[in-house]
Amino acid sequence: MRRQPAEASAQAAGNEIQKLSQLPIATSDGRVIRLSMRESEEERVVAIEEFLEELLPGRFAALEDQRRAAVAADPSLDGSLPDVTWFAVVDDAPADVREQAFNLCMLREEARKAAALIGKYREVLATLQEPVAMPVGLQDVIGAPEPVTL
């Protein structure tokens, strides 16, 4: 069965995007990312949070409850109290697990930042795939119909 030209073009474009998602991309801060890795980085964040919860059971929720109670007592505190983070939880962790928990927080932060960065790079790629209108008259010079999709 012979494919229609549009179907073949769509398949070829999909194959190229798949290849691009696997290529290593050097970022401006010296890291190397792959566009396909965002979901796995997000999963790593969740897995580390679950491990932190096992290591420090209930402490994150307790700190959130303390913050909510303080804001309920004095709503003006809402903007001045810091958000609850795992780093804040680790500050009050027992000494025997504090270093391990801190290292896990660092790994979680690294994964969170990587996922966010990959998301930004994906957004840039998505904008390159949006239709771009040629300046009036240019399509006559090069013979391309308007709009042109990159």
How would you describe the overall organization of this protein?
Strand 1 (25-26) and strand 2 (32-33) form a beta hairpin. The longest helix is centred in the last third of the chain and has 35 residues, at 95-129. Helix 2 (38-55) packs antiparallel against helix 5 (95-129). It is elongated and about 65 Å long. Helix content is 65%, strand content 5%. With 150 residues, it is mainly alpha-helical. The protein has six helices and four strands.
Any descriptors?
mainly alpha; 4 strands; 65% helix; 150 residues; two-stranded antiparallel ribbon; elongated; two-stranded antiparallel sheet; single chain
Instruction: State the oligomer.
Output: single chain
Elements, N to C (H/E): HEEHHHHEHE
Helix count? 6
* DSSP strand count: 4
Main beta sheet: strand number and arrangement?
A: 2 strands, antiparallel
Q: Looking across the biggest beta sheet, what order are the strands in?
A: 1-2
Mean pLDDT: 83
DSSP strand content: 5-15%
Taking the alpha carbons of the first and last residues, their distance comes to 29 Å
- SS-based class: mainly alpha
Shape: elongated
Helix share, percent = 55-70%
Layout of strands and helices, then pairs:
Blueprint: H1 5-22, E1 25-26, E2 32-33, H2 38-55, H3 59-73, H4 86-91, H5 95-129, E3 131-132, H6 138-142, E4 148-149
Antiparallel strand pairs: 1-2, 3-4
Helix pairs in contact: 2-5
